[in-house]
Design goal:
Order of helices and strands: EEEEHEEEEEEEEEEE
Structural class: mainly beta
Strand content: 35-45%
Number of helices: 1
Number of strands: 15
Distance between the termini: 26 Å
Strand order of the largest sheet: 1-2-11-7-13-5
Largest sheet: 6 strands, antiparallel
Radius of gyration: 16 Å
Amino acid sequence: MKIKSTTIEDVKIIYPNKFGDHRGFFSETYSSETFASNGLQLIFCQDNHSMSQQAGTVRGLHFQIDPFAQSKLLRVVRGSIYDVAIDIRYGSPTYGDWVGYTISADLWNQILIPAGFAHGFCTLESQTEVQYKVTAPYSPDHERGIAWDDQDLAIDWPLNGKTETLSEKDTKYPSFSELPKYFEYSP
């Protein structure tokens, strides 16, 4: 398993080893030992699985606040997504910056989004399935979000003129500039 930093140091792209033969393949997609040896001390408590029927479906930009702030380890088991993480840790040198990566079943990669980041993705294919682990349970009272199309963030979503599909909730989130300072950066 290879773990690489992105242009925002705390967001990681993970490449699990995949061993194939005439039967199919085997892959260890998570190892607490490997994560710990790379300085990632995480305890996951819940696994989630989503399926989006249409390409161009946007889910996000979501996060939870303390005491239910979540780190997420996300992978795609069918299809592909463009995954985005935005640093919302006030005082961080990358506060308000975002990174975006294609995560797909074909690439067999994963993304680790730490607590203190808003997260969202856009499906690049129909029938895309995403699985992710989280470090805190879902708490509707602690769920927050940012407008996925916020002009100040200027996220370069790969919709290519396709009609995006959003949940009602995702159409009502505030802009980044209206966001309270939920997270403080500590180096």
